Amino acid sequence: MNFLHYAVQETTVENTTVFFEGILGLKKIREYELDKNLCREIFGIEKNYKVVMYELGNGAIEVFIGKKENCISLTHIALSPNNREEILKNARKYGLWIFEKERKEKDKLVFIKDFDGNLYELKSAKR
User: Fold this and answer.
1) pTM score, two decimals?
2) Contacts of 100 (CB under 8 A, 6+ apart)
3) Which of 56, 87, 94, 102 has its C-alpha lying 20 to 30 A from 21's C-alpha?
């Protein structure tokens, strides 16, 4: 089985661009609009959504742009960037939530949230 994509939702294109391109350094590969009729059939929401896709290794992150309802979730995307400290520096510059915890005999645990509360675990590139 191969990883194809992971979908998240953001409220604005601006936040999406800053987070995925400016902070994570991902490359935008496609933009399209999901028609409200198809959206209703798949997700039960009758609304058009702009969708922006970013390259992530052999797969992609699919970002739906629009208002979302807040909920508690354990859902997150785990990434292994080559430049974790640079990402954290950029996230701090924008005032994003960051969680860091040193662990005995394990790599430091690091999570960040984007502008809309989506959670990302940043694992050290040296595993």
Assistant:
1) 0.77
2) 88, 108, 109, 110
3) 102
